[in-house]
Structure formats: C-alpha cells, structure tokens
Inverse folding.
C-alpha cells in the first residue's frame, strides 16, 4: 500500500513541476529575449559552451562532415599543471548534418557526466567551468594565464 502512495506522490509532484514549467517558465535557463531573437532568426544559437569545454578536440575528430574546426583562444586557459586549453570548437552550420556525434562524444558529457559542451542545435549554458573538472581554483591562476 505504501509503495502505491509513494508512486501517486511522485506522479503528482512531477505533474506540478511540469505544470509550473509550462505555465510560469520555471527552470528556464535561456533568457527570453535571446529565445525570441533565435526564433525570429535574428540571432544564431550558441553552439559551444566555451567555459565548460576542455578543448580536447574529440568533437572535431568524430565529426563525419568536417563541420568542426578548433579555433584558438585569445587567452589560453590553464586547466591543470599538464593541461592548457588553447582552442575551442566552432561548428560550420552549413556543413552540419545534425548527427549529434559531437554532442554524444563530448568529454564533458562522457568523462565528467555534465551537460555536453557542444550542441548542434544550440547549447544551454550549464554554468560549469572546465577548471572545475581539473580542480583548479581561480586563485591558482586558472583563468586566461597559461
Ligand atoms: S552534429 Fe554536425 S557538427 Fe556535430 S558531429 Fe554531426 S555533422 Fe559534425
Ligand atoms: S566541446 Fe567537448 S569534445 Fe569538443 S573540444 Fe570541447 S570538451 Fe572536447
């Protein structure tokens, strides 16, 4: 009996949460102005979360159409004693066939189990930082000073 009660509670809780999402845009991460501009074609969606990306280049290597190039950063970022982020990916949307290999292979997702740092349809900024994955604090000079 207890497990039925718990199941009903769970269902009701989920329904309330989803209703709040639909009616009041609860949990929405993307700014409404940006969403509207993307819908109207005024703004390109952001495809790479540069802060979360560790610059490994896996996405570029798995892309079957050569749509991804690694672009140098103005300021390389020190992620650990042995690792410096020097490049981040850029997707050429003209060449992209939306296979999602890049998204599914991203190390941020596969190794660190966080939202992928690349998405061919548009990323939701996770707030994660590549420095966190390597345990580097800002005070240790983890930003822009490789
Ligand atoms: S989704 Fe696009 S950019 Fe990503 S791997 Fe496929 S073709 Fe390349
Ligand atoms: S988006 Fe992901 S796979 Fe591509 S370089 Fe960044 S961390 Fe690596």
């Amino acid at each position: 009996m207890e497990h039925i009660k718990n199941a009903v509670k769970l269902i009701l809780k989920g329904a309330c949460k989803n209703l709040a999402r639909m009616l009041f845009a609860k949990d929405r991460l993307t700014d409404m102005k940006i969403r509207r501009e993307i819908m109207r074609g005024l703004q390109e969606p952001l495809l790479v979360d540069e802060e979360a990306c560790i610059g490994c280049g896996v996405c570029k290597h798995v892309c079957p159409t050569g749509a991804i190039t690694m672009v140098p950063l103005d300021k390389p970022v020190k992620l650990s004693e042995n690792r410096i982020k020097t490049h981040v990916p850029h997707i050429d949307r003209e060449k992209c066939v939306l296979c999602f290999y890049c998204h599914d292979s991203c190390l941020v997702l596969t190794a660190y189990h966080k939202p992928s740092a690349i998405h061919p349809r548009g990323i939701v900024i996770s707030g994660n930082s590549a420095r966190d994955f390597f345990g580097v604090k800002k005070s240790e000079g983890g930003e822009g000073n490789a």
